[in-house]
Design a protein that fits this description.
Elements: H1 22-31, E1 61-65, E2 68-72, E3 79-81, H2 86-92, E4 99-102, H3 116-119, E5 125-129, E6 132-133, H4 135-140, E7 145-147, H5 155-162, E8 166-168, H6 181-191, H7 195-215, E9 223-231, E10 234-238, H8 243-250, E11 254-255, H9 257-262, E12 269-273, E13 284-289, H10 292-300, H11 302-305, H12 308-311, E14 315-319, H13 325-331, H14 336-350
Parallel strand pairs: 3-7, 4-5, 7-8, 9-11, 9-13, 13-14
Antiparallel strand pairs: 1-2, 5-6, 9-10, 10-12
Helix pairs in contact: 6-7, 7-14, 13-14
């Protein structure tokens, strides 16, 4: 992963992605018949419309992305998702990916309550972790289409994958991991020939956000920040391009622009020392943390104790998992957003 882009969960960042070599590309081509028309894999992970069919889509379609544009000539049947949360939008559109990457050290078909019913008994092949892709595993699935929206896919990876399948890389007009969920959903919908269905998903989620804003007009008068701490003395505040911050902005809260100025160019997180914690003195502070130990450590920090947001008890400590509230707004997808809203709205409303 490049130093110029960071996904929502900085604790799992690795130093650099595996770059596929020519030998791997040759293996991939051999596995897929050198890019000729491919039949779907007979394995249980082969993608298929979850609803058993539907109206035939209009193809070809052309999707623009960071590395150019990709024309998809016919409806893809076997799909691999390489974006950290891309599988959610694909599932929401009635298709089960044959392959996906791991993100939270939790297989994508695992515990997440917003996708369990969508996956059912189908289990995708895990073809990588974050931006490190196993090219051989992807090739063995013989995909018609690879989708990488919420990703940091490199040009070398794109070029290698493109030798044997169609690839729709991340949106070009935003930094890696910085595209709005609406745009990524539209990109995925277009690639699948499901523009109308994707548009309806977006409209429905927008209506859910609006319902919360209408119910809580006071949110619009409050500044909010989202933060985390993975080790003693080190803190992270998320910028306006991070899914977590975007989620709370769409609930109606105002974000604090000073956080964006503290982040490195292209990053969606600002790294803070204890001496910089005053930037988090906002009307509502949401800590999304991994353990009670982390919560206790933050609360014990002397400089944090001086913040008014802490003294007035306007800070919330929300877990990533168990319950999966933080994970839901970290994914911030058409499937996870309704769950996140249902869980977080009463917590925010209870803060006076």
């Amino acid at each position: 992963m490049s130093a110029g882009a960071r996904p929502a969960l900085s604790r799992f960042v690795r130093s650099a992605p595996r770059v596929a070599v020519l030998a791997v590309a040759a293996l991939a081509l051999a596995a897929c018949g050198g890019g000729t028309e491919k039949s779907a894999s007979p394995s249980a992970t082969t993608s298929a419309p979850a609803d058993g069919g539907g109206k035939p889509a209009a193809f070809p379609v052309t999707v623009e992305h960071k590395y150019g544009s990709t024309t998809i000539d016919k409806e893809p049947k076997t799909i691999v998702t390489l974006g950290l949360s891309d599988q959610d939008a694909v599932l929401a559109l009635g298709v089960k990916p044959a392959g996906a990457v791991d993100w939270f050290k939790e297989t994508p078909y695992g515990k997440w309550p917003w996708t369990k019913d969508k996956w059912g008994s189908t289990r995708p092949q895990i073809v990588g972790e974050r931006d490190e892709y196993n090219i051989e595993k992807i090739a063995a699935l013989k995909p018609d289409l690879v989708i990488a929206q919420y990703s940091g896919m490199k040009k070398e990876q794109y070029d290698t994958l493109s030798t044997f399948t169609k690839v729709v890389a991340q949106p070009k007009e935003h930094p890696d991991y910085g595209a709005p969920w609406q745009l990524m959903t539209r990109q995925i919908g277009k690639a699948l020939g499901k523009d109308a269905e994707a548009g309806k998903l977006i409209t429905d989620i927008d209506a859910r956000f609006k319902a919360v804003r209408d119910k809580h007009p006071e949110f619009a008068t409050k500044t909010l920040a989202v933060a985390d701490s993975f080790e003693a003395g080190k803190y992270s505040a998320f910028t306006k391009t991070d899914p977590k911050a975007i989620f709370f902005s769409e609930l109606g809260f105002k974000l604090k622009p000073e956080i964006d100025t503290l982040a490195k160019p292209g990053w969606n997180v600002a790294e803070l020392s204890a001496e910089k914690l005053d930037v988090l003195d906002v009307d509502r502070l949401v800590w999304v943390t991994s353990s009670t130990e982390a919560n206790d450590r933050i609360k014990a920090e002397p400089l944090y104790k001086k913040l008014k947001v802490n003294q007035d008890k306007r800070d919330l400590f929300v877990p990533y998992q168990d319950p999966d509230i933080g994970a839901a707004f970290s994914f911030n997808t058409v499937l996870s957003i309704p769950y996140a809203i249902e869980e977080i709205e009463p917590l925010l409303a209870a803060v006076k």
